[in-house]
Amino acid sequence: MGGEKKGLVLLDFWVSPFAQRCRIALAEKGLVYESLEQELLGDKSDLLLGSNPVHKKVPVLLHDGRAVCESLVILEYIEDAFPGAAPQLLPADPYARAQARFWADYVDKRVYSCGTRLWKLKGEGRAAARAEMLETLRTLDAELGDKAFFGGEALGFVDVTLIPLTSWFYSYEKQGGFSVEEECPRLAEWARRCGERESVAKVLTAPEEVHDFIGLLKKHYGLE
């Protein structure tokens, strides 16, 4: 399916927050991999289509040619396949692991899809997306509380899931007319703290570049 190449290969896209999750996790664990940039708005590669025939999208992690799809599944796979690679992003305690999975799933289902509606829709649709986004960010701000990271004192599964989406906050703020700093100050401070980590700083796309990319998407979908 993924060819004969050995080792780790990430089918990637420069601005994808889902692919960036994988890059951060791999960097945190010190795992060597090759990134293969994919075309997503034009003709997709045979490698991508063959590796992820169901969803036909990035990220895909090829491990010795075998494909693992979907970013949260990839994060868990990295944990399982390389148990000796520290740090462990998922806690050892079963209850804490379940909580981490719950909040990662919450991020996965709410933030990006809601943000997409913010820039795609107008009028009542955008107003509804704005209300949902604020509810979501406030919920995450409350869950973070006064902790350094979502799991406590160490960067973990939920942090890696959410961090790449912070580059999109600038665009969400402009489309929704709100400020993450004002609405969710603890979340904003957490984003700054995470952004200082080498694994994160090397991966995150500048907010202005994300905003330009959203403009490209609008043209692609005929919204401008």
TrEMBL record:
Subcellular location: Cytoplasm, Cytosol
EC number: 2.5.1.18
Keyword Transferase: yes
Recorded GO MF terms: glutathione transferase activity
Keywords of the record: Cytoplasm, Transferase
Start and end residues of each GST N-terminal domain: 6-86
An annotated GO cellular component: cytoplasm
Domain GST C-terminal, chain residue ranges per copy: 93-213
Example of a GO biological process term: glutathione metabolic process
InterPro entries for this protein: Glutathione-S-Trfase_C-like (IPR010987), Glutathione-S-Trfase_C_sf (IPR036282), Glutathione_S-Trfase (IPR040079), Glutathione_S-Trfase_N (IPR004045), GST_C_Tau (IPR045074), Omega/Tau-like (IPR045073), Thioredoxin-like_sf (IPR036249)
Reactions catalysed according to its record: RX + glutathione = an S-substituted glutathione + a halide anion + H(+)
Matching SUPFAM superfamilies: GST C-terminal domain-like, Thioredoxin-like
The family this protein is said to belong to: Belongs to the GST superfamily.
Protein function: Conjugation of reduced glutathione to a wide number of exogenous and endogenous hydrophobic electrophiles.
Protein's name according to its UniProt entry: Glutathione S-transferase
Organism for this UniProt entry: Hordeum vulgare subsp. vulgare (Domesticated barley)
